[in-house]
Specification:
about 350 residues; mainly alpha; Ferritin; minor pseudopilin epsh fold; 3-stranded antiparallel β-sheet; 14 helices; 3 strands
């Protein structure tokens, strides 16, 4: 029984710290982390909880191996690394500071390395159980460092910083012409809460933060999208994409205006052909992105898919309507059934709004 508790308590403690860290990370993973510039080596999101769960189990067993032998000498080092692990979640995700997070995870690397060296002289298996954790931390340190280096905004002077503190944001979340539950059951109130109220708002907030003190501060949203790169482009383009998306849906769909219908029939053969091509393109777009009905300089219409945050105006096209096929747009209501979402979305397209975006 004594040995059971020697293993059980460290494992329970490790998973408790992990659960608290995950709770802290939750909001940031929705509103902040997805929009950072990340290393090409960043694994899919599902890898992180699986990896940490396995590693917490191993480090718990490592401590239990020492405690079961009555060796308490290593306990302080083990608790120190666990505390630093939790502190990193606070600094990186809650405070949203990659710089402080980098300092903390470097300290965590040192503490874990010290534990491995110290444990190796007493019980080799305890040290080896920590090696996968050490390797993962080295990789996590690289990812944290990459985010810190590649997501710098403009360096502000003291005067600029003071102005930023009292400045009115240039862009704001628009008030929708329908209630947040008006699109149900096609789009639930919960989806609107997260998609419109969290994701869309985060893109706008990040855009406002990134343009402060730069030449982009005096530009409109479309001009920023046309001229920017990196983190600013990702956030500004997503803000514009979501603006077009939410403005382009309605709880009371009307008959397609004659001019839009005439052009669709001219360029697709029929409205049915357009609907089929649009739906098939949206269903077939791999990963995250958007599908648009666009107009070129000659007035011809086409269905255009774009990846991630890309917007047709970057390709000299005029976007008339779009569907968001990032999973956050539909997963709460449709899970992995994207084709079902696409089919239902076509029932709430605001054809009047799409027609209003046609050029003369």
């Amino acid at each position: 029984m004594k040995k059971f508790f020697a293993y059980f308590i460290p494992i329970l403690l490790a998973f408790t710290i992990g659960a608290l860290g995950s709770y802290i990370q939750g909001e940031a993973l929705v509103e902040w982390y997805p929009y950072l510039i990340k290393s090409p080596a960043t694994p899919p999101s599902i890898v992180f909880p699986i990896a940490w769960s396995v590693l917490y189990l191993l480090i718990g067993i490592s401590a239990g191996t020492m405690l079961a032998r009555g060796d308490m000498s290593v306990l302080r080092l083990w608790l120190l690394q666990l505390l630093l692990n939790f502190l990193w979640s606070v600094c990186f995700f809650a405070l949203r500071s990659p710089f402080i997070g980098l300092l903390v995870i470097l300290a965590l690397d040192v503490a874990v390395f010290a534990y491995i060296i110290y444990a190796a002289g007493r019980r080799a298996v305890a040290a080896w159980l920590f090696v996968p954790y050490m390797l993962w931390l080295i990789f996590a340190t690289y990812l944290n460092g990459y985010i810190y280096i590649h997501n710098h905004g403009p360096k502000a002077t003291t005067a600029t910083a003071a102005a930023m503190a009292i400045a009115i944001p240039k862009f704001s979340l628009p008030v929708l012409p329908y209630a947040d539950d008006a699109l149900a059951p096609i789009m639930s109130k919960e989806t609107m809460h997260y998609h419109y109220g969290k994701h869309y708002k985060a893109y706008i907030d990040n855009t406002n933060r990134l343009i402060m003190g730069t030449p982009y501060e005096n530009m409109g949203l479309e001009e920023i999208v046309e001229k920017s790169e990196g983190a600013l482009f990702n956030n500004a383009a997503q803000a514009l994409n979501h603006q077009i998306y939410f403005e382009g849906i309605t709880p009371t769909q009307k008959v397609m205006p004659k001019e839009l219908e005439r052009r669709i029939v001219r360029d697709f053969g029929s409205v049915e052909n357009f609907n089929r091509e649009f739906a098939n393109t949206a269903a077939g777009l791999f990963g995250s992105g958007w599908v648009w009905l666009c107009e070129d300089d000659g007035g011809r219409l086409s269905v255009v898919p774009t990846k991630d945050a890309d917007n047709p105006i970057r390709h000299n096209l005029n976007p008339l309507m779009c569907i968001d096929v990032w999973e956050h747009a539909y997963y709460l209501d449709y899970q992995n059934r994207r084709p079902d979402f696409i089919r239902e979305y076509m029932k709430i397209v605001d054809w009047d709004k799409a027609a209003s975006r046609l050029t003369e």
